[in-house]
Amino acid sequence: MSEEDQLTPIPERAVANAHIRGMHNYLSTWEKSVDETDAFWGAEARAALDWIVPFRTVLRGSLSGGDVAWFPDGYLNVSVNCLDRHPASRTAIIWEGDEPNDVKHITYGEALAATCRLANALRTLGVRKGDRVCLYMPMVPEAAYCMLACARIGAIHSVVFAGFSAEALRARVEDSRCKVVLTADEGLRAKKVIKLKAVVDKALEAEECKCVTAVLVYKRTGGAIDWKEGRDQWMSEAMEKERPFCAPEVMNAEDPLFLLYTSGSTGKPKGMMHSSAGYLLWTAFTHRYTFDYHVGEVYACVADIGWITGHSYIVYGPLCNGATTVMFESLPTYPDAGRYWDLVSRHQIASFYTAPTAIRALMKYGDAPVKKHDRSSLRVLGSVGEPINPEAWKWYYEVVGEGRCCVVDTFWQTETGGHMITNIPGCQPMKPGSASLPMFGVRPMLVDPQAGVLLEGNHKEGVLCIGQPWPGIARTIWGDHARYLDTYLKPYPGYYFTGDGCRRDGDGYLWITGRVDDVLNVSGHRLGTAEIESALVTHEACVEAAVVGIPHDVKGQGIFAYCILKDATEETADLIPSLKAAVRAAIGGLATPDHIICTPGLPKTRSGKIMRRVLRKIACLEADQLGDTSTLADPSIIPLLIEKVEKAL
Ligand code: WT7
C-alpha cells in the first residue's frame, strides 16, 4: 500500500464545530501565518492575551542573529492570563490522585487564591523577579500553583522531573543557582512511595547548593522525613500566613518564564529558557487548534509536569485558554490497564493526550480494558514524544477512539515550546505514523545534511529545520548563549535545526524519522548517550563506556551500553547491577541501561573516535550490515563484540 493510500478521512462528527475546517482553510491560514507574520501574530497576541502595556512591535531579531524577540515592548503577567481573567467559578483543574476515588475539582478562583498565597510566601522568603526557584514535585495541583506563583512574582521556575536522582537535581540547582526548592514529603504512584524530600536533602548537602536558603514542603503522604530547622517549612503553613491576593509583577514579554533542562548529544543538560509572552501565546494557540479546544470541554494530558509536555499542555496552554485541565497522579496500569479510559468516562474527557509508549504498553492488555469504559465523550486523541508506529496509531484510532475521533500526532521539542508539526482536527485527512503538516507559523525545511542545501518538493528526505522564528522558540540556554547558537542556529545558518531526520512524502506529509544525533528517546524521555556514558565511568571499575539505542517494543528505544573495565578480572556477578546503580545514582531510574556488556575494547577510528554506527549495528543484531569498517584502528574487536552481544541478548 502506498502512503497516498493510507489517508484516513476526517471523522466528521468529531469536528462538526471545528475552529478551522477543510484543507483550503488550513492552507490559506498557514500561508498568512508565515507570510504576514506581523499582522497574523499581532492579531493573535492581542486576541489571546491580556496585556498590561500593549506591544507595538511584533517580531524583532532573526534566527541568523540568534536574537529573536516577540512583542518586545509589551508587558503582561502570565499568571494573570492563566487565572485572574477566567470566571472564578469555572473548574480549572480536575485532579485525580493515585486512587481513582481521590478526586478534586478546583475552580479558577481557588487556584488563583492558592497561587497568590504561595506567591506571597515566596516573596516573604526573599524571592524577587529574576530569581530561580526549583520544583521537585509530584503530580498534585500545588505543583501548578508553584509554577504560577513564580510567574506571578517574576521568579523563574525550573521544574526537575521527580524521577531524577539527587545528583541530577544537584547539577540543575547549581547550574541555575536556585534560591528556593519546592517539593513534597513523598510522591505516590501505583501505591509506590517516592521519597522526594530525602532526594532534595541529599542534593542540597552539596557545597554548590548553598545558594538554596529555603525549602517548602507540601505534605502529600505524611510519611516520615528529615527536617532542617531554619531551611525547611511546610508549604501549607507558609501559605496560611499569607493573604490570597498578590499584585502581579509587570513582566516584559521577553522576560524569562522558566528554565527546563533537557539532554543534548554532548555535555551537560541544557537549561532551555522560555519567554513570557511568546511562549504563552504559542502554548495557548497550539492547544486551541491542535485539540480543537472549546471552552467548557474537559481536556486531559497525562504527561508529568516535569517535562515540557506538562508545562505547555497541562498548565500554561489550557489555563491560558480558560480550559478545564486534568492532572493525573497515577499510572495507566493502576489499579488495572483500564485506568485511562475509566478516567475518560468519569470526567467526560473530550481530548486525551498521551505518548506512544503508553499506548503500546496498554495494547498488550488487549481491547477488553478499553471497552469496559464509555469513551463517547472523546473527540480528539493526541500523541507526543516519538514517532507513533502505525500499529499503535490504528489501535488508538480504532479501539480507543472507535473510529470516531481525530488522532493528532504532534511533533515538537522542549526547545520549541509547543507543537510544530501535527495534523489539525477538521483540516486534513490523517496518515497513521505521519506527524502530517506544519502548525500555523511554522515553516519546515528539509536540508541535505552533507551538502547543506534545501530539499524542495515532495519525495525528499533530509534533516528537519525550521525556516523562520515562531513565538514559542526557546530564547537561549541558561548561562550559555554560545552553546545555543552552536547547537540550534549555526549548523544550518538562517534556520533552526531540530536534530531530527524527516521525509516529505508524495502528498507533502512529513514523517519524522528520529534523531540524527546521539540523543536517545526512551519511553518518550530524552537522554544523551554522553550523559549515560559519564554516569557509567563514575563507577570505579569502568574506564570507558559507549552507549547506543536499540529498538524496544514498548519503550521505543532501549539503552545498550558497552563498558571497558579497568581490570577484566573485575567482571564479577554483581558488576552489572552495580553499573546500573551508578547510572540510577547519576541520572535516575529512567536512564538505567537495558543491557550492559563488558569488553576489552571499542571499535575506534585511527584518530580515536568511537564508531557508534558499528556499535549500534552490533547491538541491534545487524552485524551483517556493518558497512565500511576499513577506517577502524583494530578490526579484531568486532567479532569479539558480536559474540558477546549475541550471548547477552
Ligand atoms: C524529541 C523532543 C515534545 C514533548 C515531548 C518530547 C521526538 C517528539 C514526536 C512525534 C516523532 C517526536 C523528536 C524530538 N518527538 N514528538 N510526534 N513524532 N518524534 O520532548 O524531550 O524535547 O524530545 O522527541 O525526536 O526531537 P523532548
TrEMBL record:
GO terms for molecular function: acetate-CoA ligase activity; AMP binding; ATP binding. It catalyses: acetate + ATP + CoA = acetyl-CoA + AMP + diphosphate. Residues 84-476 form the AMP-dependent synthetase/ligase domain. Residues 26-82 form the Acetyl-coenzyme A synthetase N-terminal domain. Its EC number is 6.2.1.1. InterPro entries: Ac_CoA_lig, ACAS_N, AMP-bd_C, AMP-bd_C_sf, AMP-binding_CS, AMP-dep_synth/lig_dom, ANL_N_sf. This is Acetyl-coenzyme A synthetase. It comes from Prymnesium parvum (Toxic golden alga). The lineage of its organism: Eukaryota, Haptista, Haptophyta, Prymnesiophyceae, Prymnesiales.
